[in-house]
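Subject: Sanity check before I submit

Could someone independently write out the structure tokens for this chain? I want to compare against mine line by line before I put it in a report. The sequence has 299 residues.
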Amino acid sequence: MQDILENLGELLGQNLALVVLAIVLFLAISSAVRIVPQSEKYVVERFGRLRSVLGPGINFIVPFIDRVRHKISILERQLPTHRQDAITADNVLVEVETSVFYRIIEPEKTVYRIRDIDAAIATTVAGIVRSEIGTVELDQVQSNRAQLIERIRESVVNVVDDWGIEVTRAEILDVNLDEATRAAMLQQLNAERARRAQVTEAEGKRRAVELAADGDLYAAEQQAKAKRVLAEAEAYATSAIAEAIAANGLEAAQYQIAIRQVDALTEVGKGNGKQTVILPASALDSFTEAFNLLKGRAK
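---
Independent answer below. Compare away.
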């Protein structure tokens, strides 16, 4: 056993330099090769100064000289939802709830130009939101929210450009009002609804009057047309009678008059139950004249 240990010691003593060299080579290769994930970028320093930024994939650096000082995620980030007070152009106090999304595109600027990027962005957004809301009235904040959000995003982009980040979205999630303002707005809304209801009712009455007038006008026009048709028919009948009189003489006219008188008396005599009809003496003469005219025609 002692012989084996002595032989092992002699072997290690002879190959110690090779072992040390192998360890050094392994460490050098390990420190020289850097595999960067797709979602990150590495900031490399050489003697405390910025050397390079490693992108995703396999990268090589100078071992023992270059060091990876910062590993920066380039995924999109969301700042915590922030609430702040702001005053609109018409002096209404509102509570604005905002949210910002951004991602780092130049890690070397983010690392060496700003210490706390999240706090810096949150402070910048708060100031810009307060400034932009102060330029518009409350109604515009509610109705033109998309335009207001776009203006805020553009202002934030211009400010944070030197920090190596890209603001992808800046959202106004909600605009809250105090109780007094809510009550005033609700009262105004109810008054507007009442006014619209009154206007609608007045327009309905006016329309009903117009339709009634149109109906009366249409009925009058139809009655006028009916009277005109009757007048034309009466004129035609009178013309026909006149022609008959001209053709057959006065006896034909007298005969027609007598027949009409007889028909009229017949209608008077109709009725249900017992009744007494008083006829003038000339009524009997009508029967006699009609009979005599009929006999004369028969001859």
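---
OP: Matches mine. For the report I'm noting this point. Strands lie at 33-36, 40-46, 49-54, 57-60, 66-73, 77-78, 82-87, 93-104, 165-177.
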